[in-house]
Amino acid sequence: MARLRRPVVLAGWLAALGLAWGLAGAFVQDVLEGVDRTSLGAHRLAVPLLALAAVAVALAVRRRRPVCTACGAAGRGRLWSPVPERAAAGPSRRAVLRGLGAFGAAAVTGLGAVYARIRGWRPVARDFFFTDVEYTSPTYRPPAEPARIRAMRRLGRTNAMVSDISLGSGRISRVHGPDVARAALDRGLNYFDTAPDYSGTESEEVLGEAIQGRKREDLFLATKFCVADGHLPNDTPVPQIVAAVEASLKRLKTDYVDLVHIHSCDRLERLMAPNVHEAFDRLKESGKARFLGVSTHTPRLEEIADAAIDSGRFDVLMLAYHFGMWPRFGHVLEKAKRKDVGVVAMKTLKGAKHTDLAGFRDERSTYAQAAFRWVLSNPNVSCLVVSFWEPAQVDQYLAASGTALRPEDVAILEKYDRLVRGDYCQPHCGVCLPACPEALPIHDVLRGRMYAKDYGWPEEGERLYAALEKDASACLACPAPCAGTCPHGVPIRSAMLDAHATLRRA
Ligand code: SF4
Ligand code: SF4
């Protein structure tokens, strides 16, 4: 019997450790990622704890042997043996020690399994669990010396080493653009993200001007499959798609781009559109493009990212990723890491409302750095892209490069969350969409509003709104079954009406 019990206990122990690794480890990781606590699922802690307790009990409890009270000799009989048992008087000291040892071993190995699961998050865990959070934050002081890129990270299978903070150019213009891009280059930034429809081709032209005289192999240039007016339809002939990228090369004044993304992808048909893939293969063969990527920030982000990784076609994913990301997202990043697909984070400022928030004055200028540190604390993120368009942003943004997440950063981010609750629609969320009988793209309408109101960029908001298949006019006469469906407290109908009033073109 004892011979049979040992393998059973061993198997139980291994199963309990597997549960601790897979369930409790993932639970702790989600806590560190800032996932909404109501969706964490306490069973992920309870199940491994119960399993570890069960094997500890199995180890500690041994069948009591009958002992002769007269001579003290241990017998081999069963518990119902007529021989009186010493055990009946209570557990021996040895049995107590054995029990404590079993529970101690269960606790240590269980914690070891959880640690193994989250070991890449060690610095975050240290700040998160072992430091007193100071709920006041320092006022940002411009650095005494110009801020520089202090960390380069590997961009997945591209093998490129890219600056952890990289230059997005959606708003860049001729006014400050070339100087901003050159200053960033001088400070060590080497990854530039652009697209033909950013600032009506001005973005590519400005970057093309800024990189003149620089060694091309020191730069990593990413653009998108589109034209100045926006996306190319899926059935666009291959030569036309190739020509669109060649036009980007001309504006960028270069012979090749390192990365071409399928831009703002929200459907699997777009992700795997045969013409786009054939165009990329041709561009790659001719040396005009090196790697393929996809950018996405829609409610179908997880599905798109999953399919992109599984297809084996994509070298890089550019994904919305910010503090308090929705459940299970961290697992997409882990999967990308396992398949050696580079991950570029975008939308890291979570609506960038910090400049206008009343009650956020002291934290305002450090918010971006806190948000960047949080994103970069995920070891599965290769780099983040943020929009630069003003000279002051170079110092402010690069100051976060290569620095660890601090307790006061978490405090700033939590305060931001409290202040924007009810006023920020997460474009990748989509929880409310099934409630709308008009099938309105609520997240896209409110994204346009965000550009106009929060980013102070009404032209872009209007452009996005005008490109939508449906506008928000249906909300005018609607009884609003969407009311109360937003877990982030957005009053959907009034926000939609506000968007319609703000963005519609005369
Ligand atoms: S309004 Fe709320 S529920 Fe709807 S997409 Fe935005 S954040 Fe999600
Ligand atoms: S108010 Fe607008 S968004 Fe809400 S259900 Fe009606 S049409 Fe849809």
Please state how the strands of the largest beta sheet are arranged side by side: 3-4-5-8-9-10-11-12
Major beta-sheet overview: 8 strands, parallel, barrel
Question: Structural class of the secondary structure composition?
Answer: alpha/beta
Morphology: globular
CATH architecture of the largest domain: Alpha-Beta Barrel
CATH superfamily of the largest domain: NADP-dependent oxidoreductase domain
The total beta strand count reads: 12
The percent range for strand residues is 5-15%
Unreliable spans are: 77-87, 131-140
Radius of gyration of CA atoms, rounded to a whole number:
29 Å
**What is the count of DSSP helices, taking H or I runs of 4+ residues?**
17
CATH topology of the largest domain: TIM Barrel
Mean pLDDT: 84
Number of domains: 3
- The rounded distance between the terminal residues' Cα atoms is 85 Å
Please report the first level of CATH classification, the CATH class of the largest domain: Alpha Beta
The portion of residues assigned to helices is: 40-55%
Bound molecules: iron/sulfur cluster
The H/E string reads HHHHEEEHEHEEEHEHHEHEHEHEHHHHH
Describe this protein's structure.
- This protein is an alpha/beta fold and 506 residues long.
- It folds into 3 domains: 2-129, no CATH class; 152-420, NADP-dependent oxidoreductase domain (TIM Barrel), CATH 3.20.20.100; 433-503, no CATH class.
- The protein contains 17 helices and 12 strands.
- It has an 8-stranded parallel β-barrel with strand order 3-4-5-8-9-10-11-12, surrounded by 5 helices. A two-stranded antiparallel ribbon has the order 1-2.
- α10 packs parallel to α11, α12 crosses α14 (407-420) and α15 runs antiparallel to α16.
- The chain is globular.
- Residues 77-87 and 131-140 have low confidence and may be disordered.
- Residues 435-436, 438, 440, 442, 474-475, 478, 480-482, 492-493, 496 line the site of one iron/sulfur cluster (SF4).
